[in-house]
Design goal:
Largest sheet: 5 strands, antiparallel
Number of strands: 40
Number of domains: 4
CATH architecture of the largest domain: 5 Propeller
CATH topology of the largest domain: Tachylectin-2, Chain A
Radius of gyration: 36 Å
CATH class of the largest domain: Mainly Beta
CATH superfamily of the largest domain: Glycosyl hydrolase domain, family 43
Structural class: alpha+beta
Shape: elongated
Distance between the termini: 87 Å
Strand content: 25-35%
Length: 677
Amino acid sequence: MYLYLLAVSIMVLLASCGGSGKVKNGMTLFDEKNYTLAIPQLKNEYKEQQVPLLRGEKAFYVAESYRLSGNTKDAEGWYAEAIKQGYDAIATYNYAITLKANEKYKLAIEQFTNFARLEPFSKEKAFEQIKSCNLALKWIKERVSLDLQNLTAINSNGSEYAPVVLPSGDLVFTSDRIDATGNDTYGWTGEKYSDLYLSKKQTNGSFSGVVNYSPELNSGVNEGTITFSRDGNEVYFTRCGSQGKDKDDYCAIFVSRLQSLGGWSSPEKIKLFDADTFNVGHPFLSKDGKYLLFAAEAPGGYGGKDLYITFLQAGTWTSPKNLGVDINTPGNEVFPYIDETGTLYFSSDGHDGLGGLDIFSAPASGGVWSKPENLKIPINSGADDYGLWLTKAKPKDANDPVRMSGFFSSNRPGGAGKDDIYMFQLSNENLFVLEGVILEKIFADPSDPNSKVIDFQPVNEANITVKKYGPGFPVVANINSDKFGRFGCDLVKESDYYVSGEKEGFLKQSANFSTKGLRDLKNITIPVKVRLIVERIYQDREIVIPNIYYDYDKTTLRPESFPVLDTLYSLFAENPTIVVEIGAHTDSRGSTEYNIILSQGRAASVVKYLVSKGIPAQRLKAVGYGESKPINKCVDGVECTEEEYQLNRRTTFKILSETFNLESITPEDIRIDPKKP
């Protein structure tokens, strides 16, 4: 995990591995980062302590020792005990962090909320964590077509991490397994000091056998996180500490070169900063060898470990430059890696994530890396996920079955040891999701649906039904819209769908949509957006049907009216219980009697068309109003423009069965009936 020595290069080797033989107390061992010995000692002191607050302190440091050595499961209970004994608010915060790492996000939110109450000046920190937990709960529900395998042939009871794939396909990685160089045990982890190892790739794609990679590179202290030059003649790696009297207890980057007779040269430390009193590690050499990315907890950073870049100029590495606030956070950013597209991958516990370290990607844009994105589940988990290496960064084309593949490290539950190497393959199949919203119109005059539409507002708790066209017309989802009017469900490729929304007081509305022909080689998930506008039912309102046209001085419907009437037909079909009056109106020109006859015939034409489409005749009533209901000044004796006369020549409908009316829709453009030539 990231708290292991090379996993985030913060593990300072114990300066006092020896001693006078005197038994050290729990806090001394804790301060020396000798957590494996601190835990049983602190537990004994906890049992012996009678003062509740002091018992709480012992419980807290037992929890801290477990957490810092990678055992968040046991840490959880000890934090709870520290809180029970009345220990400081930091126990509540770290308890929440541990719950989050154990993927108990709802409980973690409760504890972060408690911490915000206990420490009002730290509310922002708590709220950031709550936001992260809510994102995790959302990401858990998302689908992904990814195959994930634990490399059981390589992983041991110890830790294996930071895989690097050689041109041959063989794997070089870091491990503190039992046969690592030297006889000492590292107090932080309770395991051997780590070495670099090699596993050969077999013809069937599997890996077999694990051997110590190099006697020249491995030593009795910690080595790991290696990167190679393109020609394979030069390596950079992390080493923490040194052997002998003059001990250097910090992590640094070393370089070694392939000798003409075989084997590697004696490693040399690279001096990147003026001071050597902080940890530097996790090198990644660019393909062209012109720059080196690495992690360091150097002064002047953003907090924790930051990512830096240094350039090779005239055989010398330049002064490191921090990658900046978009990449680095007050937390830890470690394990940088650049794929063939120039995208930066790294691990962080400072950006919004699922728990411990998560892996992030930042595409290159204009010479810089853009804002990072979390790779989400299942590559990331509540545990520490880091050390990504891609064997494939993008598909060759739309027919390529694999989008992305590679390796990464994780200490998630279910592995062979503490940290394991996993192999993954992301299918080049898109996943589809419906992103719908159901809305109603907001009118300038809320009581008048004929007034101007000024906005839309969500309709919550509407019943949404999604069906898939095909045998049986199966229901895919039956859900309610949320307070924002949103609804959604998973979809499948190359399929046609129907969605409807209804709520009491509204007319049911529906829409058709499809995933046919949709493809995205960049993004895995394709959102299919649908917007339903439902009509509120108003009482005693006449509804104007826009864009209904007749031949001049006749009752015959013109062809351009049919699409509008087809929409009206759909409304009737979706709402089979309504009984509707179809009304027709004329302007004031012509005799009153003639206009009544003309309008009655026009209303009857609309009814006839709807009946021909399948609407039962008993649900429709035709009424001709003639010139009796003008909506403007254009009555007998008043001269008007053709546009004003046209407004009175309208077709309407009224819902009779409920004595309610659908809101009026006024067309944006006014078309004038052509006169007979």
